[in-house]
Amino acid sequence: MSIGNAIRKRRKSLNMTLQELARRVNANSGNLSRIERGTQGVSEGMLRKLCTALDCTAAHLYAQSESESGNSTNTSRLTLHQPQEFVRWFRSAAPYIHAFGGRTFVIAFGGEVVDDGQFVALSHDLNLLASLEVRLVLVHGSRPQIDSRLKRARIQTRLVNGLRVTDDETMEL
Questions:
Q1: Closest Cα partner for 20 from 10, 31, 33, 29?
Q2: I need a labelling partner for 84 at 20 to 30 A (CA). Which of 4, 75, 146, 148 fits?
Q3: Cα–Cα dist 105/136, whole Å
Q4: 108 vs 9, 75, 137, CA distance in Å?
Q5: Which domain holds residue 65?
């Protein structure tokens, strides 16, 4: 289950319509629908508003999304029906939250993340880190996108020791 599905499940458990949720968070219901379907990512600010309106935490939504994805471990199957399990998990995570809250993480990712459709999953992870007050510096690659653009322009890529050499003609693209 994606974070969007977890949001939808929580909203429906509260017998709340999409329009009511949109009104509470001052957002467009179409955008919320896309978030719930997983075709649009959710920003940190919007996630905070949604959690307030849905009376839950981001950790709860992420735990729900992981617990029903089939790829989870027992520690991520946290529900409101198992508070002792959540407390145990949270206590084990607390030292890391305290150690890294307020710190700056530099996260580098390749352009393949965007091409392979993994960017929404990455944005969920980044939102979780940001909600824990970790400052983020993102360094993104764009090799597949540049290669595609050069191919369309019929410009040959020149590599030296595996690194692209960008000449004046290429820079003009």
A1: 29
A2: 4
A3: 5
A4: 33, 28, 8
A5: 3-141
